[in-house]
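Render this sequence as a predicted structure.
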Amino acid sequence: MKIKQLNNKEKGMAIAIIIILLLGGYGYLRFQPLMSEVDSLERQKQATLNRISTMEIPDEPQEKIDEIIAALDDQEKAQEAIEDNAARIEMQLAPVDSQELRVRISELARDSGIRIRVNEVLRQEPVRIAPSNNRRTTAADADKEMNVPVEAGWIKRLAPGSMFHRPLQRLEIDGDYPSLRRFIHGLDDLPYQVTVVRMNIEKLDISPLRGMSQLLKTEIVLAL
């Protein structure tokens, strides 16, 4: 049937049906995405409400604000004092590659009546941050200075890579007790700080002459 064969009433009904179909299609295409967005916002709102319902609000601090500020000031002053003390100590340390200090130590041993058997640099394996199961060791981690625990001992805590790294000198010396005592106390008079971090003393098998002191074989590790 052709449109021309329809009467006016039938033409009006056909036009009305076409308009209804167009409006329905437009409404579906226009409002369906909006309904999906509304559903998503509704789910987000419900999740937020669930989090709020289980949230624990911390108790109001009992300390007064003035007391907290005063405590913070004390902590800052303590940190400044520690930094100043560390700076003064660092000024007393010799350069890492200082040969002058090693020569002074050898001269002190000779002047104290000590015979040096071995005088060498004690080299240690650098300490590094161990990789964990959850993350890899990055280049930034490799450059960080590690805080070696006290239980590891000062020899390990002074190794390269530690935040306390200092060069170590190992000596094997022979001498009697008075000579060894002069040498140890003489370290305090050197221009740079020298610390004894390990000392092992053994009695030499050679018996002393009558009226002479027993000779001692001593291993000393010095932090320069």
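Summary. The chain has six helices and four strands. The helical segments are 8-54, 65-91, 100-111, 139-143, 154-157, 177-186.
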